[in-house]
Write a structure and sequence with these properties.
There is one protein chain. The protein has 4 helices and 7 strands. The chain is of the alpha+beta class and 150 residues long. The protein has one domain: 3-Layer(aba) Sandwich (Aminopeptidase). Strands 1-2-3-4-5-7-6 form a 7-stranded mixed beta sheet. Strand 4, helix 3 and strand 5 form a beta-alpha-beta unit. The longest helix has 15 residues. It is globular, with a radius of gyration of 14 Å. The mean pLDDT is 97. Bound molecules: coenzyme A.
Length: 150
């Protein structure tokens, strides 16, 4: 059973210690970089949580939450980072986090969740496709934009 927890001074270090496989680092930035991006990009309406299994940090998720879409900013609801720690992958955690996020944003009035991914060997597209995401046909720089209809 997973829970989403706020990141505070008390747990920041243990959440920043969650890392993906070295070969996946080209697809996603680290938790520490994500927190810096959140602080430096308030216009993207960052919202983020640590993912816990019991009392163990196993992942991180960050969205643009109800942002006004404009050039360079996808929204209103955009899944910006999803990280499950290397040793915790393949246990259904990634899908469970998406389900929790979908419940939260639906309750906030969202009708779709956007995300994007960088194509390449080991890309997360099969994961998103199984969950029901579809390509919108757009690209964001070198990333392919996906939509999940809610
Ligand atoms: C992508 C990621 C979040 C998936 O998390 P996870 O907890 O391992 O995924 P789940 O266990 O919930 O997997 C759900 C399904 O997707 C599949 N899947 C997961 N990651 C996959 C990948 N990279 N390629 C192919 N299939 C994948 C699983 O096999 C599983 O399929 P099944 O239901 O048929 O068994 C995780 O691998 C990760 O953090 N990757 C590195 C960072 C990244 O690429 N993030 C996304 C871009 S921001």
């Amino acid at each position: 059973m997973l829970s989403l927890r706020e990141i505070t001074d008390a747990n920041r270090d243990e959440v920043c210690a969650v890392r993906v496989h070295p070969g996946q680092e080209k697809f996603v930035d680290s938790v520490a970089k994500s927190l810096r991006d959140a602080a430096s990009t308030p216009e993207a309406a960052p919202w983020y949580r640590a993912v816990y299994s019991g009392d163990s940090p196993v992942g991180f998720v960050m969205l643009s939450w109800n942002v006004l879409p404009r050039p360079g900013i996808l929204g209103p609801y955009f899944l910006w980072r999803l990280i499950i720690g290397a040793e915790h992958q393949g246990r259904g955690y990634g899908s469970e986090v998406l389900k929790l996020i979908v419940e939260l944003i639906r309750a906030d009035g969202a009708t779709e969740l956007l995300t994007s991914y960088q194509p390449g060997d080991g890309e997360p597209w099969p994961f998103y496709q199984r969950f029901g995401f579809e390509p919108t046909g757009e690209v964001d720089g070198d990333e392919i934009v996906l939509r999940l209809r809610l």
